[in-house]
Amino acid sequence: MKKKTQTKKIHTKKPRLFSLAALCVALPIACMAAFSGCETHTHTWGDWQRSEGEHWRVCEECDAEERGAHTGEPCADCGYGFKALAFGFTEGGDAAHADFAREANEWFAAQGEENGFTYDFAGSDFSLLNDDTLAGYDMVIFLNDRPHERSQQEAFERFMEGGGAWIGFHACAFSMVDSKEESEGYWSWYQDDFLACGNYARNTWNPTSEPLTVETHDHFSTKNLPDVFDSAPCEWYGWEYDLTQNEDITVLLTLNPTEENPAGDQPDPNKPHEIWREGHYPIAWANDGYNMLYTNMGHNLQSYNDFEKESETFSCPEQCRFILDAMYGLVLGG
Ligand SMILES: [Zn+2]
Ligand SMILES: [Zn+2]
Ligand SMILES: [Zn+2]
């Protein structure tokens, strides 16, 4: 069943335009006299720019500028000042997953300082996934992990169904159990409804940079991306369910390997299934019933012998743009 509970949907205020177009409507005669050939157009606003005191945006077709003070906390117009709480392990577990979490902590904190949001990191302490703590946050971020206890899962469900924002990375979509039985620990709301991918089905190896196809630009997360871009190195996942057949799901980015351009470079001849040579793999998607976005990104290339770091997820400018645009869009309720 499709849930539409975006109580934080706050795109209700129409921008007030002090433009030639507005002047033309208000003062047609004066306008005609002063500006013969005066044309009206609906402004094509660029992204909000933010500073501590105000926000502004500029029309991409004319010089019109809309500028104003922040409204509310976070700002209902531009999202300035939102608060994000992230979970994930920075040591132990898969070394490349932990490495990503450490890198993410630095990147999100720096972006928060630059763009005006608060980034708090809870580590693996999922006991903080409770109603009282979540009431102080606008967004939750899962870095390669997700809650394992039922009470924490239920608090997360309430947060999302109440209009909270979420972005999840890479292995956070793992069900952690082979079974599909709730009694055996399968979180069916998360796997089947919210993420809608079901269980993990396959992966590539080694982590490789791949061309990613932007499936739609008609989404806040992809509006500033080119049609195709080269990712940072990552381990790519395939899933149990065909996300393209789910009408609640908007597939944002796909990986489309071919015989000429396979994904993965597994040198072990006994593991040919870890090199993909065909197919159409959703690697980032949104469930339109929630303020959520999942992305496969979050596995850095590194040696498992000496744990030497060999790549950075946030070295790819398009991925950085995608994640930052996603965060503001999700907080503003899409
Ligand atoms: Zn304009
Ligand atoms: Zn603002
Ligand atoms: Zn991984």
Automatic annotation (TrEMBL):
Against Pfam families, the record matches this protein to: ThuA (PF06283)
Alphabetized, the UniProt keywords read: Signal
Coiled-coil annotation: which residues?
A: none
The signal peptide, as residue positions, is 1-33
Top-level taxon of the source organism: Bacteria
Residue limits of the ThuA-like domain? 96-306
Give the Gene3D superfamilies listed for this entry. 3.40.50.880
Kindly provide the name given to this protein in its UniProt entry.
Answer: ThuA domain-containing protein
* Organism for this UniProt entry: Candidatus Borkfalkia faecigallinarum
